[in-house]
Specification:
Elements (H helix, E strand, L loop, with lengths): L1 H5 L4 E4 L9 H28 L6 H18 L2 H9 L6 E2 H34 L4 H4 L2 H27 L7 E2 L6 H5 L7 H34 L4 H30 L7 H25 L2 H15 L1
Parallel strand pairs: 1-3
Antiparallel strand pairs: 1-2
Helix pairs in contact: 2-3, 2-4, 2-11, 3-5, 3-11, 5-7, 5-9, 5-10, 7-9, 9-10, 10-11
C-alpha cells in the first residue's frame, strides 16, 4: 500500500517566486529584459563568428559552441519561469517533463564547464606552442574536443537524473522555479543521503577537474608570458586570454557557490536569487565580456555594421 502511495505523484508544481508576490511583475520585466539581451548577445556572437572569416579559428569555434550551448541551456528554463511570474495559477509539470528539463540543463551545464576547459587548453597551445598551434588544434581535433565535452555532459547528467527519478515521491511542490537536483530530491519519501552523495560527487568532479586543468593551463601560460622580453609582447599575449579568464572566474565562481556549498540556513528567497545568477546573469555576462574585452570580436562587429550601412 505504501508503494502505491509513492506512485500517486505524477506531476510537480513550482513554488517559484511566490515569496516575492508584490514584485512579480517587476521581476518579470527585469528577467525578460535580461533574457532578451542574453539571446541577442549569443545570437550576435554566433552569427559574427560564422560570417566573418577572420574569426574562423579554434578559439572562436569553441566560443560559438559555448554561446549555442548557453542559448539552449536558458531556453529550457527561462521561458517557463517567465510565464509563471505572470500566470495566476502555477502550471504543473509532469515527472517526465521535469526529468527532461533536468537532464538537458545538467548536460549543458556540464558541457559548458568542459568547453571552458577546452578553451583554456586552446589558449595554452596558442601561447606556449605557437609554432605547432595549427597542427595541434586542427579542425578535426576541435570537433572531437567539442563532441567529447558534450558526451561527458550526457553521461554525467544521465547518472544524476537516473539516481533522482528512481526515487519515490510523495510531495509535489518544488521549492524552486525549475527542476534542479536538490529541490526535487527533497520531495522524496525516503532518505536521499546516497543520492545527495552521488549528486555532490558528480558536481565536485566536474568543477574540480575542469577548474583544475584550467588553472594548470594558466600557470603555464603566465610562466610563458613572463619570459617574453618586450612589455608590448607580454601585453598582447595576455590580451588573448583576458576574456576567457574573466568568463572562467565568473562561471566557476557561481557554479562552486551553487553546487558545492554545504547545507545552510539560507532562505528559499536567497537560494532562488543565487540560482538566478547561473541561469540568467552568467549566460548574459559571457557575450558581454567577449564583446567588450575582445578586440577581434569588436572589429568583426564593426566590419559587419559597416557592411550593413554601406
Amino acid at each position: 500500500m505504501q508503494r502505491k502511495n509513492f506512485t500517486e505523484i505524477t506531476e510537480f508544481i513550482f513554488l517559484g517566486f511566490s515569496g516575492f508576490h508584490e514584485h512579480q511583475i517587476t521581476l518579470f520585466v527585469v528577467f525578460l529584459i535580461l533574457y532578451t539581451l542574453t539571446l541577442a548577445g549569443n545570437a550576435i556572437i554566433v552569427t559574427i563568428i560564422h560570417t566573418d572569416h577572420h574569426l574562423h579559428t579554434p578559439m572562436y569555434f569553441f566560443l560559438s559552441m559555448l554561446a549555442s550551448s548557453e542559448t539552449v541551456y536558458t531556453l529550457v528554463i527561462i521561458p517557463r519561469m517567465l510565464s509563471s511570474l505572470i500566470a495566476q495559477n502555477q502550471p504543473p509539470i509532469s515527472l517526465a517533463c521535469c526529468a527532461t528539463q533536468m537532464f538537458i540543463f545538467l548536460t549543458l551545464a556540464i558541457n559548458n564547464c568542459f568547453l571552458l576547459m577546452v578553451m583554456g587548453y586552446d589558449r595554452y597551445v596558442a601561447i606556449c606552442n605557437p609554432l605547432r598551434y595549427t597542427n595541434i588544434m586542427s579542425k578535426w581535433v576541435c570537433v572531437q574536443l567539442v563532441c567529447g565535452a558534450f558526451s561527458i555532459g550526457l553521461a554525467m547528467a544521465a547518472v544524476q537524473v537516473t539516481s533522482i527519478f528512481t526515487l519515490p515521491f510523495c510531495h509535489r511542490v518544488v521549492g524552486h522555479f525549475f527542476c534542479d537536483t536538490l529541490p526535487v530530491m527533497k520531495l522524496s519519501c525516503i532518505d536521499t543521503t546516497i543520492n545527495e552523495i552521488i549528486n555532490f560527487v558528480v558536481s565536485l568532479s566536474v568543477i574540480l577537474v575542469t577548474m583544475g586543468l584550467v588553472f594548470i593551463s594558466y600557470i603555464l601560460i603566465i610562466s610563458t608570458i613572463l619570459k617574453i622580453a618586450s612589455a608590448e609582447g607580454r601585453k598582447k599575449a595576455f590580451a588573448t586570454c583576458a576574456s576567457h579568464l574573466t568568463v572562467v572566474i565568473i562561471h566557476y565562481g557561481c557554479a562552486s557557490i551553487a553546487y558545492l556549498k554545504p547545507k545552510s540556513e539560507n532562505s528559499l528567497e536567497q537560494d532562488l536569487l543565487l540560482s538566478v545568477t547561473y541561469t540568467i546573469i552568467t549566460p548574459l555576462l559571457n557575450p558581454v565580456v567577449y564583446s567588450l574585452r575582445n578586440k577581434e570580436v569588436k572589429d568583426a562587429l564593426c566590419r559587419a555594421v559597416g557592411r550593413n550601412i554601406s
